[in-house]
Amino acid sequence: MADKEEEIDCYALLGVTAEASEAEIQTAYRKRSLKIHPDRNPDNPNAAHEFHQLRRALEILTDPAKREALAEAAKAKAARAARFASYDAKRRDLQTELEERERQFKRQRKEAAQDERDRKNEFERIKAETQRLMAEKEKALREREELARREGKAGRTASTEAKVDGPDGPLDTTVRLKWPRKSQPTWTESDALSAALSPFGETDSIFVSAKSASGKPPKNITAVVAFKTILGAFAAVEAAGRQGGVLEDVGVRWAGGDEPEAVKRLRAEGKLDTKGWTPSPAPATAAGGEGGNTKSFTFSSFPTSFSTAPSFSAPPAPKAPGVDYEAATLMRLRERERLAREIREQEEREEEGAAA
Question: Are 233 and 140 in contact (CB under 8 A)?
């Protein structure tokens, strides 16, 4: 007999005895169902649950195998109660404690299973959302390809301009952040994190990994942030660990691992001299969260050695955008998705290793 079938008193719900025939059970069910049906009791929030239990009771008592199992369970329960009554006080207390531990174990197992289901559902939701965004991007790309083909516009020119004015690689504007949950608890929301990073530049997309494989909140939070310009990403990397700054307790590194070639090229040309950077207070934002523990700053000079600020943002879409430029944009989106998936898998492996 399953646990759920033992939770209800089938005979009491239908108002019949254990010796009742199937016809008597059917008659009792019809009378009882007319009284407690949810349509006749719209003001009773428990009406649907009571009606469901009544249907289960009918199913059990009209099934010979289930009814026999129910009878055996009732006999075992009565025998257990008789044995319990014969125990002395100490033994009864021990029996009660053991039964309570067993119930607690079942509850914990059920909660763990529910947490696992919730985690899988959340992962599937994120996966479906990512696939939806990818499908929309690919659809837009196909439409632009068709538009360019109809108008006879070649995509080679736009691709060349993107290579000159934009980042060299798909992750050149993307950084990886890691911080203790206690220091910035509100940054698990993308909007709050974007607002906190606004002094460095506008963000393009944010992925926050704030849930471990076990479903419990992790000690450290990891996020992948794609800025709209390479200068915004560079500013965030340089600001990491600066005392009094918004990223004082945050580790920031390039998502690709190494510093992008575009940044190295600017360093070699002497255009990224950070000695002239000075932090200055920035207006309070919603990223401060509860308690106002978020620190923020802007760069009063960013950086001072720029004679003319180089453009490293992705070029605006031309009137007849080229196929190559759109393909590069889609490649960046796929690369960021791959990086977010690898971070999630790495954190799950680390958690499993710590638990072992």
Answer: no
